[in-house]
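Our preliminary data section would be incomplete without showing what the modeling component actually yields. Below, a chain of 128 amino acids is followed by its predicted structure, encoded as tokens that our downstream tools consume directly.
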Amino acid sequence: MSEVDVEIVSFGYLHGEPPAAHLTVDLRHHFRDPHVRPELRYMTAEDAPVREAVLATPGITALVDATAVAVDAFASGPTSGVVRVADGCAGGRHRAPTFAGALAERLRAAGHTVSVQHRDIGKDVVQR
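Predicted structure:
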């Protein structure tokens, strides 16, 4: 596969509506938010401590795997085209971009050509 067949967009629900997607994964309510840890609050998924904290959360790896299976189901349907996945957390700086990166890695290992965009990772920390 040379063309992108999966597009992943991470985002923060507090920064606007979810992007249009075939699959939308909401990470807000079932997974710990690194934002609550002062030492991680101003970091992003570009920082190893954030990625490690998110990926150590029970259930995240299983959700990455399940989402990859769902992407494969969409991709194997009778109509070809790009499969779009949106995954969101509260601010779009920690959980969502970490999940997007892990999903992209899993899908690439399975032979997909993947693009990843982090819509809100560079936005200011939401004070809540």
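The CA atoms of residues 10 and 118 lie 5 Å apart. The helical segments are 38-41, 48-55, 60-75, 95-109. Preliminary results of this kind motivate Aim 1 of the renewal.
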